[in-house]
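Minimal example, chain plus flavin mononucleotide.
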Amino acid sequence: MEGVERSMRVLGVVASHRRLGNSEILVKEALRGAEAEGAETYLLRLSDFDLDFCDGCMACVFKRTGCHLQDDVSWLLERLLDAGGLVIGAPTYFLAPAATIKTLTDRVMAVLDRLVRLPPRPAATIAVAGLPEWDQLAQPLLNKLALVLGCRITGSMVAHAPGPGQILLREETVTRARELGRSVVTGEILPRPRNCCPICYSSFFIPAGGREVYCPLCRTRGRLLEAGGEVEVVFEPEALTHNRWSREAMEHHFLGWIVPTREMFLKDLPRIREARQPYLAMDDRWLRKPATKHFPGAGPPLRGLARVCTGGSAAMPLSRPQAGARGGSPLPGIGRPWSFLPGPYRSPGPG
Ligand SMILES: Cc1cc2nc3c(=O)[nH]c(=O)nc-3n(C[C@H](O)[C@H](O)[C@H](O)COP(=O)(O)O)c2cc1C
């Protein structure tokens, strides 16, 4: 048993672009803790890799052919599945983890069938935010990635510091990160804050009748208790096994719902095709990216959206028959030149 623990490979995942930023430092500190427990450690920074958005083709589920996108995510997922334990650190942008975390989470669909057959692995998560009043979604949504990856969260924290590296001035936070790293190797579940979901650490609850509540992320069920004039949310011990991310629930969702949606869709397809027609006819409204130094392609550089939308161009033709009538439209916004729309291709000169 000891030999297994000592050879555990712990992978630190950093979701911040900022070199030696707070996420990176705390993940590294957690890896130090893991090393102190005998683990081999590795690091990867998501922004060093190409991550495309899932395009929803569903081939990974319906055809089991893996993902067709030619980026680095398949390689990344292999590393994430290989690791014996994970430490994931992410900055908070607009209340939630930075977008790479969501992009990666969506792509896990391609390995879901393998994941449900893996034993749960330990993971620790570190959400970094500038200030406590602006971090509410960060921790549960970061934990969602660990849970989707089939991990058991041994510890999770939210750290607060706005400037890169500023977290180092908070000694207790750095110490806590190290403890998180240790917990990944020892498997010890660190104490969780009060009144939070025992799975994702969220403190959002949906009323479920009477004193019952449930966590919208995990579907763990809890109960509001009043003691000493204070309300507390208490979860039954089975919440730890009965939740959305358990092996059984994930397998049921994958095999019992996602896979059969294909047949359901194919059966409905003739009716869907017909009902889609009016929306297909609206396809002459798409704005297309023009040819500029930012978007290399045919045609001269555009001088702004106003010109594109009132006159059209080779790169962005106005195929709508009524385009010329736009200037006189009584509809609000329609007659205005579209130059108020921001874009990287906006020219400073006259359009
Ligand atoms: C685009 C952007 C949005 C941000 N939004 C939030 C926010 O909603 N809440 C917050 O507390 N901090 C916010 N921050 C601050 C970062 O979370 C903070 O600087 C953190 O230390 C960054 O971690 P890093 O050094 O690992 O990149 C934001 C920063 C950026 C760049």
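The beta strands are 9-14, 40-45, 85-93, 96-97, 121-129, 151-160, 206-207, 212-214, 221-227, 230-235. The longest strand covers residues 151-160.
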